[in-house]
Design goal:
Blueprint (H helix, E strand, L loop, with lengths): L8 H20 L21 E2 L14 H4 L7 E8 L3 E2 L3 E4 L10 H5 L2 E3 L2 E5 L5 E4 L1 H14 L7 H19 L7 E11 L11 E9 L11 E5 L25 H9 L4 E6 L4 E5 L2 E8 L4 H5 L6 E5 L11 H13 L13 E5 L4 H9 L3 E8 L3 E10 L2 E4 L9 H14 L11 E4 L4
Parallel strand pairs: 1-4, 10-11, 10-17, 14-15
Antiparallel strand pairs: 2-3, 2-4, 2-9, 5-8, 6-7, 6-8, 7-19, 8-9, 11-12, 12-13, 13-14, 13-16, 16-17, 17-18
Helix pairs in contact: 4-5
The structure holds pyridoxal-5'-phosphate (PLP).
The site of pyridoxal-5'-phosphate has 13 residues, from strand 13 and helix 8.
Length: about 425
């Protein structure tokens, strides 16, 4: 076939990915594909969960203790489910937390066939245990497994397994005497094939653990971000930046470590020669700025209007964060006419678009940069106080000690929903985990 007979390159690539994903779903999760279900291949099924409780429960660390902050302390139990190409999913297990066995040849150890999720279990001020929009995480996990040929599963079954673990360990590890606290939830999937061949996995393990985790959302003076350099790119079109796959994170740690050594908290990941702003560390990134006016308008004393800006998702180089989505939805609903929500704030236009570090730089120089924050489960809503770009520091005003007014109000709303504060609940977003009394 002559090269000219080939369809344009990007179409071929896209078709290849689409075919691969269709094939993956067909092979690994019959119930999700349009084909008839193969009776010999079992779907992930939370109703088959078998429970083995730990013989040696561990003490819960004190609040503020080193164990609490170490991100090493997990609760008493975990979930595991094994999958093989031949039989599909085995019955999932709730079992004592502990090491997992892998052969040194296991696919994940060589080819990064791994993906994960990050969620939290909240102990509410009303005494209830809640997850925050967990169905979005379970759907994203499926998107990530598909991107790296790990087996598919019905997302609602994963959610049921997560809920089972939270219901088991939540009451002890997030006691009612500690309202306003949380545990971090880490669902993970790895390919376990004990063979070095570079190929689609035929064996996999799903596991879920709950970890003690420190709050990271109030850094005095705000987070300091170091804009990435041209020789370090996090994600690129056609890549996998939109999926929560381990392969996105390992290679970013050189830059992260260097940034930390220089006193920065996170990298602000830029893309391409235009220095498009994408994300801050493993958080989505938002700025509030005032739009530019012409010199004539400025001479007449006119000011631009306020915008809340974040990167678009369409190039698939940015992760579709649950926090990002929630910030956008709340801001669209309540900040376009803040007075109607009892707020003495100027209206804010919500904009998802491609924007560059040069625009942020210009806004900062002209005094139009109003606020900036990172948004993600781990860092929650973390005000940004400074961005360092090409040898210069650009300060972001910190007028209320906790970022600016918009950052603060968005954070309060989310907190209210996550921790069930009086009058703040949003039933569709807060998922209550029933506890066995
Ligand atoms: C996890 C993550 C986020 C935040 O997503 P949430 O669903 O809000 O926790 C943002 N960017 C990257 C790169 C991430 O890994």
């Amino acid at each position: 076939m002559s090269p000219s007979a080939l369809p344009p390159q990007d179409e071929t690539l896209e078709a290849l990915t689409k075919e691969g994903i269709k094939h993956n779903i067909f092979e690994t999760a019959p119930s999700l594909s349009q084909y008839p279900k193969d009776p010999h291949i079992f779907e992930l099924d939370a109703s088959r969960l078998a429970t083995t409780l730990t013989p040696s429960p561990r003490p819960v660390p004190e609040l503020g203790s080193p164990e609490m902050a170490s991100q090493k302390t997990c609760t008493d139990h975990m979930i595991q489910a094994k999958w093989t190409l031949e039989h599909g999913w085995e019955a999932p297990r709730l079992m004592p937390y502990g090491p997992i066995q892998l052969m040194p040849t296991a696919s994940v150890l060589h080819y990064a066939t791994e993906c994960f999720e990050g969620m939290k279990l909240y102990r509410g001020f009303d005494g209830k245990l809640r997850l925050f929009r967990p169905e979005l995480n379970c759907r994203r996990m499926l998107l990530s497994t598909n991107r790296i040929a790990l087996p598919a599963f019905p997302p609602e079954e994963l959610l049921k397994l997560i809920v089972a673990l939270c219901a088991r360990d939540g009451p002890k590890w997030l006691p009612k005497s500690r309202p306003g606290t949380f545990l971090y939830i880490r669902p993970t999937m790895i390919a376990t094939d004990p063979a070095l061949g570079v190929q689609r996995p035929t064996e996999a393990l799903l596991f879920v653990m709950l970890t003690c985790f420190p709050p990271m959302d109030s850094i005095p003076g705000g987070m300091k971000l170091l804009a990435s350099q041209d020789d370090m790119v996090r994600a690129w079109p056609g890549g996998f930046g939109y999926a929560k796959v381990g392969a996105n994170y390992g290679p970013s740690l050189v830059a992260q470590g260097e940034a930390a050594r220089m006193g920065f908290h996170q990298i602000l990941w830029l893309f391409g020669e235009e220095c498009t702003v994408t994300e801050a560390g493993a958080s989505n990134f938002f700025v509030v700025w005032r739009t530019k006016v012409s010199p004539e308008e400025a001479a007449e004393g006119k000011k631009g209007h306020l915008q809340l800006v974040t990167a678009r998702l369409d190039e698939k180089i940015v992760l579709d964060g649950v926090t990002r989505r929630s910030v956008l939805e709340l801001a669209r609903e309540r900040l376009s006419a803040p007075q109607e929500h009892g707020l003495d704030l100027e209206p804010l236009e919500v904009v998802e678009r491609k924007y560059t570090m040069f625009e942020v730089e210009e806004a900062a120089k002209e005094g139009r940069l109003v606020e900036a924050f990172g948004a993600g489960t781990a860092w929650f809503i973390a005000p940004v106080g400074l961005v360092h770009f090409r040898g210069k520091d650009y300060a972001v005003p910190q007028k209320e000690g906790d970022g600016g007014s918009y950052t603060k109000v968005i954070k309060q709303w989310l907190k209210g929903i996550m921790w069930g504060e009086e009058g703040m609940q949003k039933d569709e977003w807060g998922y209550i985990v029933e506890e066995k009394e």
